[in-house]
Design brief:
By secondary structure, the chain is mainly α. It has one domain (about 1-60). The chain is built from three helices and no strands. It has helices spanning about 1-15, 25-40, 50-60.
Length: about 70
Amino acid sequence: MEQFDEQRRVLEQWLKLPESRRRDATDVVAFAYRLLQERPELVGENRQTSLETIVGWLMPHLHEVRPQASAD
């Protein structure tokens, strides 16, 4: 249950970012790294949550950028 709560807290912070900052995998990695450095309390006291774990939680939640339909 604790991991679920950590995941929920991380995802809440991720979704607070503007869509323009949630588009690429590099955005996910940068966010996860900053989170672990600046807000370690969000991932619990045991510090077992790794950068890779957070990236795995966030990758399914990247903002999809749909290509514009051509006006032919």
